Amino acid sequence: MEARSYIGVPVRRVEDRRFVTGQGRYTDDIVLPGMLYAWIVRSPHAHARIRAIHTEKARQHPGVVAVFTGKDMLDDGVGSLPTGWQIGSDMKEPPHYALAVDKVRYVGDGVAVVIAETKAAARDAADLVEVDYEELPAVVDAAEALKEGAPLVHDEAPGNLCYVWELGDREATDRALATAHHITKLEFVNQRLIPNAIEPRSAIGHYDPGRDELTLYTSSQNPHLIRLLLSAFVLKVPEHKVRVISPDVGGGFGSKIFHYPEEVICAWSSRKLGRPVKWTAARSESFMSDAHGRDHITTAEMGFDRDGRIVGLRVRTIANLGAYLSTFAPGVPTWLYGTLLAGQYKTPHIHVEVKGVFTNTTPVDAYRGAGRPEATYVVERLVDLAAHEMGIDPAELRRRNFIQPDEFPYQTPVVLQYDSGNYEGALNKVLEMADYEKLRAEQKRAREEGRLIGIGLSCYIEACGLAPSKVAGAIGVRAGLYESAAIRVMPTGKVQVFTGTHSHGQGHETTFAQIVAHELGIPLEDVEVVHGDTAEIPFGMGTYGSRSLATGGSAIYRALEKIKAKARKIAAHKLEVAEEDLEFRNGQFIVKGTDRAIGFGDIALTAYVPHDYPDDLEPGLEENAFYDPANFTFPFGAHLSVVEVDPDTGKVKLLRYLAVDDVGRIINPMIVEGQIHGGVAQGVGQALLEGAVYDRSSGQLLTGSFLDYALPRADDLPSFEVGHQETPCPHNPLGAKGAGEAGTIAATACVVNAVIDALYHLGVRDLPMPLTPERVWRAMRGLPTDGAAS
Amino acid sequence: MKVRVRKVNPVKALFKTGGGVMRHTIQVTVNGQTHQVEVESRMLLVELIRDVLGLTGTHVGCDTSQCGACTVHVNGEAVKSCTMFAVQADGCEITTIEGLAQDGQLHPLQEGFWQEHGLQCGFCTPGIIMAAADLLKRNPNPSEDEIRHALEGNYCRCTGYHNIVRAIQYAAARMRGEAVVPRGEAAPTGAS
């Protein structure tokens, strides 16, 4: 019988039984004997000097076990939370303590922690902590922060400047733009977003004094990195005495990659008190304390020749980094942004300059797409606007500039070498799915009836599968970005797979099991994927940057090759033939041209009960692999959206959303489509609904709850029309590229382009995001949109 | 959503403890099992379910009653369990996600979410399933628009709702007794 193929099959997820029955186990679900509860006292001010903290009343509150301040932690030798990315040699890297010591620098900055027998007691007592603040002027806008005389966030960073970074040829770009036939220029804000995974962050520190072992449960995408940073830099305790467990995690979208103060607070205070300490964010705390995303102020100019060919692109961006450098923060608006500015086009000259700026706001770091949605927004808004300005169909202008399939590998002027692609193919496919000509005709007809229909395109590229370690080193990442895997075959032939990536919705327990079952020719039910525990898994770099399948899956593949090589030796011995006389098929080693065979289960048993075993082979069947990718992967696609704008109210209705993505080889199409859907929803959210707003004078976060910050709801979105193109990645063994961020990278520009397409004839060439009804309504009437509430 | 709540007699039900915190003894039936518990006045129903009864399938995703992750059934109707005090549930019948499957048989919604990939991280899922169960009781054959409207009280950040709509349509068809052909192939352990 042929073994089942598990590749390209919509296998239902093995993890889902626990989730649909309420048996998922998230960090906040875990209760340990003797557990205490922490509540963090947070700054109500955006910028203030701490004169004194009075904790006596709180300490006397019934049930309170301890109250700690930043000074207590500093005096105990707890270090600053480091950033993992260095931009240039002159980057300013002021300390970031888990609890503020001298000053608070944003609303929500922690100043003390109250630890009590119950959550309620901790929360009650937190109100009794009196902090004597000396309020200071605050700055929340990055452009304002750069101005002479702006409030200074850190003494270590004069002018609030963290770094200036540039990429590309400045002079060649200036020359190209000076002689361009047409220049399209945009000045815009890519607004700050709050990721809002639905599970609030949570951490439990559990110190076992008898064993001198510290276990940290944390809702993290990245348990090994947290262990490394916590043990080597912050708590300075031996790494082998620290175990980090990320159990079920309720969504991350980047916001749970980073090493957070609360992880340090729970881990350290558990060591101090000898009891487990749990902290779980209230949603209002998540709004203030989860790393935010985006927040760029950009001026971009794209030059074209007479035929509509791009001659150059100049980009100036001020990136708001917030009050402290979060774990990946410096790299997001630089290397993950500037290198993607070629998009899918043959742009001969690009120059980008980015200023990273400190402000009195929540730290900003990677949020789904991380730099690449911002880059796509620059490129795709410019190309689309240029098409309108030059009177060329937006699809046609893109066609004139696409890198062609025979031009790969293609070296862009901003470092990256694209390995493969067929951009026009994806565009043609989405236009065909949408029936573009008919849509344009309908749009014309609707306009004659006074209805405002718009059609938007977005052709994106992303660099995923982070990342070749050599490249990572060259661009300032303070880590390698390989991935690890271990495969343990048990005596009965069942298989455990240990991956250093982490699944928080992506379905690794299924996709990775499919790879293993397929390669070993065994049933899927015989494979168990283990992730999220540093005690079980050799090492790992976590899940972000659409890397899990391309790097983690490839590591699993490499480990499987080793398993199969050893299994072959055992099979050759058992069948008394040479290894090369064997073929591996359907879970059996078969002597070529005969019906003599040995199954994988018998080999596994032989490996562990080696009574009749080859002399030159170790018993057991367990292998490790570390996989370092040769290049980034380059998923790409073409998205198309159709909107209708209500002329009376300015409300935008998203009528259709179509996506054609090339994410390389697909293991589970059901899971890939789900990733596209979710990514698109978040990109649409940025275009139409979401935006973090700070009050400019007080520095208060005005969008501090779901009442003020609008996530997409079910009735804000249509069903999506998803198509695929499959060009395998040429440099990893699975041919996989990554699918997690594609939707978000494409969708924001796609929807904004559609709205501008609906309104361009009314003189609207750009709108600030999110495109709220008020802003759209004002723009249609030629009124300023800047003052509009978001 | 209307909630029928048994009136608590403030004189009979209340008594004070030494700490000055108001406590009440209440009786609730959760997933068919009756519990008599002592709760603080301010304890939310969701805290009773999670922290006292240890039923952690009901999740807390916000503090403003927006996200719907804590949705349960109180006397047969969907309620966000963060909007009720535990004491208000005195005498009520409560069903949580853990009580939805009967005799080891998944509820058609649980099966539908599994079959149609209606979940990713799974955190919002119990609340959405409980809200959808309420919808299907009121409207056994909802249109896509009706489903999307009914989900207005629930956030999902992972799925973009596309497959959640499919999952609810799948369950609705099953509950109407129609044959449902899942896309692709069946769940590995056989959901039905």
Summarize the structure in short.
Chain A is α+β, with helices and mostly antiparallel strands and 790 residues long. Chain A has three domains: 16-21 and 482-627, Aldehyde Oxidoreductase, domain 4; 32-136 and 199-250 and 256-289, Aldehyde oxidase/xanthine dehydrogenase, a/b hammerhead (Aldehyde Oxidoreductase, domain 3, Alpha-Beta Complex); 369-462 and 632-780, Aldehyde oxidase/xanthine dehydrogenase, molybdopterin binding domain (Aldehyde Oxidoreductase, domain 4, 2-Layer Sandwich), CATH 3.30.365. Chain A is built from 21 helices and 28 strands.
If you had to describe this structure to a student in words, what would you say it looks like?
- The complex is a heterodimer of chains A (790) and B (192).
- Chain A is α+β, with helices and mostly antiparallel strands and 790 residues long.
- In chain A, 29% of the residues lie in helices and 23% in strands.
- Chain A has a seven-stranded mixed beta sheet with strand order 3-5-1-12-9-10-11, sandwiched between helices.
- In chain A, a hairpin with a 5-residue loop joins strand 23 and strand 24 (597-599).
- The longest helix of chain A is centred in the last third of the chain and has 28 residues, at 548-575.
- Chain A is globular and about 85 Å long.
- Chain B folds into two domains: 10-99, Roll (Ubiquitin-like (UB roll)); 108-175, Orthogonal Bundle (DNA polymerase, domain 1), CATH 1.10.150.120.
- With 192 residues, chain B is α+β, with helices and mostly antiparallel strands.
- In chain B, helix 3 (108-115) packs across helix 6.
- Chain B has helices at 10-13, 45-52, 108-115, 125-138, 144-150, 162-175; strands at residues 14-16, 22-30, 33-40, 71-74, 77-80, 93-95.
- The radius of gyration of chain B is 18 Å and the shape is elongated.
- In chain B, strand 2 and strand 3 form a beta hairpin.
- The longest helix of chain B is centred in the last third of the chain and has 14 residues, at 125-138.
- Chains A and B meet through helix 1 and helix 19 of A and helix 3, helix 4, helix 5 and helix 6 of B.
